[in-house]
Specification:
Layout (H helix, E strand, L loop, with lengths): L4 H17 L5 H17 L4 H22 L19 E6 L7 E9 L2 E7 L9 E8 L2 E6 L1
Parallel strand pairs: 3-5
Antiparallel strand pairs: 1-2, 1-4, 2-3, 4-5
């Protein structure tokens, strides 16, 4: 049996379009491999077994290359690196009292948020600058500058 070359092109386009619905960044590599298989079978008269083997091998290689070199690794993500926000300076937007929580605003988002709930050992007024001295769960402990 000989599969027409344009079947591979259509399959590749369908897989790439399916990537829009399922953003896994794997279907795009399978689709691109199918398109390249279609180009190969258009240029060279190869059997169905060779086409499927080429598509499978190319899919595996392209997916592994993506996972190895381009996908963010956990060490590149912000999770687990919360100590990097220590000593960051922000602006108090809701007053902080010794027994109540306030809010601090940072110029750039830290760990995905620019506004954080905070506590302090002393009262800090709105508009004061403060720095992060500790992280206690999802609350920052701050100190006035």
């Amino acid at each position: 049996m000989h599969l027409q070359w344009w079947y591979w092109i259509v399959l590749g386009c369908m897989l790439c379009l399916a990537e829009l619905a399922l953003p896994t960044l794997v279907l795009v590599w399978l689709g691109l491999a199918a398109v390249l298989t279609g180009v190969l079978s258009a240029v060279l008269p190869v059997t169905l077994v060779v086409q499927v083997a080429f598509w499978g091998a190319l899919s595996v290689v392209m997916t592994l290359v993506f996972l190895r070199y381009f996908k963010p690794r956990p060490s590149d993500a912000a999770a687990g690196r919360s100590d990097e926000i220590l000593n960051e300076i922000g602006l108090v937007t809701r007053p902080v009292e010794p027994w109540s929580k306030g809010e601090i605003l940072f110029q750039k988002p830290l760990l995905g948020a620019d506004r954080w709930t905070c506590v302090a050992e002393q009262a800090i007024a709105v508009g004061s600058r403060a720095k992060v001295i500790a992280i206690e769960g999802s609350v920052l402990r701050i100190a006035a500058l």
